[in-house]
Amino acid sequence: MRGEEPVVIEALKVRALPEGSYDHLLEFLRLYRVALQMVVDRVWSISGKLSKKKLHKLFYNNLVSMGFRAHHAKEVYVYAKSLVDSARSNGGRKPVLRKLSARIDKYDYRLDLGSMTLTLKLHNGYEARLRLVTSRERVEKFRGWGNYELVVKYEDGEFWVSIYFKRAIKSLKPRTVMSIDLNFDNITIAIFTLDGRLVKLKRFKTPHRKILTHKIWIERIQKRYPRSWRFIKGVRKAIERHGERIKNISWDYSHRVGDLVAELALKYYSVIVLEDLDELRENNKKGREFNKKLGLWFYRRIQFCVEYEARERNLEAIKINPKATSSKCPRCGRKLAEYGYKVLRCRKCGFIGDRDVIATINLYKKYVSRYSRCGVPGVALNTPKPDENPSGMQGNRDEAMKHIKLYEPI
Ligand SMILES: [Zn+2]
Fold first, then answer.
1. Which of 102, 134, 168 is the endpoint of a domain?
2. Residue-wise pLDDT tens digits, 160-176
3. Rounded to the nearest 10 degrees, how much is the dihedral formed by the CA atoms of 244, 248, 249, 251?
4. Contact 162, 11 (CB under 8 A)
5. E-assigned strands of 337-400?
6. Which range of residues forms the domain containing residue 145?
7. Are residues 20 and 78 located together in one domain of the fold?
8. Distance 178 CA to ligand 1 centre (A)
9. Which of 138, 168, 198 is the last residue in one of the domains?
């Protein structure tokens, strides 16, 4: 491996159909299992440290004389060692290998994603050709990635291949900052330029009320059968059904939000700023609201999907302590007062704005002040002075509210 570049590794697991006879492939898998067990037995009996060099010395010649290629041999002893290490660290017994499966190094296979074929180099110079059974789309994703290892498995009369792909991450230099405020009813997303101009504001409704309805149903049933609900099949089933709905609604929603957010961030080259939920108890008002109604799991799930989708696109997502972000004036820093439904006003400077939008501005400001101090490139320039505001937020109610009347469909 070159350098210290961070990499993403992903496995593609697909069924594979042998083209022609697969006798040699099965023979190879059996031989591989025998060899692996032999090395495991031996390594298990050695108590001292085993370097790669030592492993090589102990097993290489033996394995090659069994008909394995050089890199087969290496894979066998490295894998055997890792099996023993993990069994030992769990206090387990000596591993006994039952499955027919082999790890194969990139030098011992040829993968052609165009024709979806895989050629494996086996023992004694044999080869096996397999056709990968999967959709184009699944494979398409890995074009341009490197692959370096695979595992081939024989199970219930079928061959399965897991191919390990990797690519280097080169984080994009952010040109804008996207801050995201999670609330009970909605998610507010704001994108700011690095010099503080608001360029995009979006708001999505959350399915929290729907989730809450199912939760209330569960509680109601449990209350009616306080001791017995676990043991009456019909009651338990009813509870499970509501639980299942909650799970589906929340994952479904999180995936879609993650995807939408990351696509938008990619379009604007944004760094994504999320609230650090672990710090939420410091943000008293919001913390209470979250905990009373639902707990944090749903927000974590949404954030998980946002972070995942961001990583997939080489975008950075960072978390910032949300303390006071929904209660402080973004212009002068004073505590804001309620001013109608979800609207807050500053008594000192007269700033008026939507509560959730204010939270996104404050998150943005926190990000900028934190990273301009640390000198993150690209962000240090043109940060707003303390008395300046991101434009569109100039204390005029219409300005602060105007883009956000409509919910985006999701
Ligand atoms: Zn103010």
1. 168
2. 999 999 887 666 678 99
3. 130
4. yes
5. 337-338, 343-345, 352-354
6. 7-168
7. yes
8. 23
9. 168
Q: Do 129 and 97 have their domain in common?
A: yes
Show the tokens assigned to 46.
């050695």
Nearest-angstrom CA–CA distance, 313 and 265: 9
296 is a domain residue: yes
Ligand 1 centre from 65 Cα, in Å? 80
Whether 254 is in a domain gets the answer: yes
**What are the structure tokens assigned to 203, written together?**
């708001």
User: Which residues neighbour ligand 1 (ion) by CB within 5 Å?
Assistant: 329, 331-332, 334, 346, 348-349, 351
CA of 329 to the centre of ligand 1 (A): 5
CA of 352 to the centre of ligand 1 (A): 9
Helix then strand count (H, E) for the chain reads: 10, 15
CA 335 to centroid of ligand 1, rounded, Å? 8
In this structure, the answer to whether residues 97 and 204 fall within a common structural domain is: no
Task: For residues 306 and 366, state if they share a domain.
Answer: yes
Domains contained in the chain, number: 2
Burial of 309 (0-12, 13-18, 19+ CB in 10 A): buried
Beta-strand relationship, 158-168 and 186-193: unpaired
- Beta-bridge mates of residue 132: 16
Residues 197, 158 within the same domain:
no
Same domain, 236 and 262: yes
pLDDT of residue 120: 97
Reply yes or no on whether the pLDDT at 121 is more than 90.
yes
Mean of per-residue pLDDT scores for the chain? 84
For residue 1, being part of any structural domain is answered with no
pLDDT for res 378: 37
Residue 62: inside a domain: yes
For residues 165-178, b (16+ Cβ closer than 10 Å) or e, as one string? bbbeeeeeebebbb
- Asked whether the predicted pLDDT for residue 159 surpasses 80, the reply is yes
Nearest to 159 by CA among 118, 189, 219, 125: 118
Hey, what amino acid is at 179? S
CB 132 within 8 A of CB 139: yes
Q: In what order do the strands lie in the sheet with 7-18?
A: 100-105, 146-155, 158-168, 7-18, 127-133, 117-121, 109-112
Is 180 found in the same domain as 162? no
Looking at the fold, whether 57 and 105 belong to one and the same domain comes out as yes
